[in-house]
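Listing S7. Sequence submitted for prediction.
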Amino acid sequence: MPAALITGGTTGIGRATAELLHTRGYRVAVTGQNPDSLARARRELPGDVLVVRSDARDLADTDALVTMVSDRFGSLDLLFLNAGIFCPAPVGGVTEESFDEQADVNFKGQFFTLQKALPLMNDGGSIVLTVGIGARRGSPGATVGAATRGALLAMVPSLALELAPRRIRVNAVSPGATETPLLDKLGVPESGRDAMRAGIPFERFGTGQEIAEVVAFLASAAAGYVTGQDVVVAGGYGLGA
């Protein structure tokens, strides 16, 4: 049975991907930090899904995570680097603490998770990084979040070339506006959601399940000749002049 590790897998896109891959025969491990989300994932995900509290900012946590995954699965076929935070603020309102936190979780944490998990990756496996359309399309207040996610996107071509001898494929997925708990956490009012929908040709938000399907495709043999790419899943957002 193939095995997958999903960071940020207790809610939203990560959780939807965990559920989908499990139905397709994967052994799955997910990480999270929020105690409520962790408890809910342990209650509601299938009992054989490994749910691990792990802080991407803490490399000791990452070492412990990789050891647990190695003990449980032995190796990995998919590494889905999905963990991330978003703390919107105008440039003048960004604090050093907020900057460091977003950089540590969104970029540094994902990089070192990849580095430490790489020895577990089977040749021919797949690495997928969640970037987001914000790395290419601007939004006021999103400067640091977009930059730290965009740093992941900048790594993709070099990683794809470096890991090509092992036939490990490296790709990014960039969701647009997606109906996940993040919208509630950010306190986006219905009027704001309506304005966001108005800019999407499909006139609706995406779902976690739709993003999960793309991740599952990138992990599958059907995407065996796809590497170094960023797949945008945004309902056509940004296509207009």
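Caption to Listing S7: primary sequence and predicted structure tokens for the chain studied. The chain has a mean pLDDT of 92. Helices lie at 12-23, 35-44, 59-73, 96-117, 143-163, 181-185, 190-198, 208-219.
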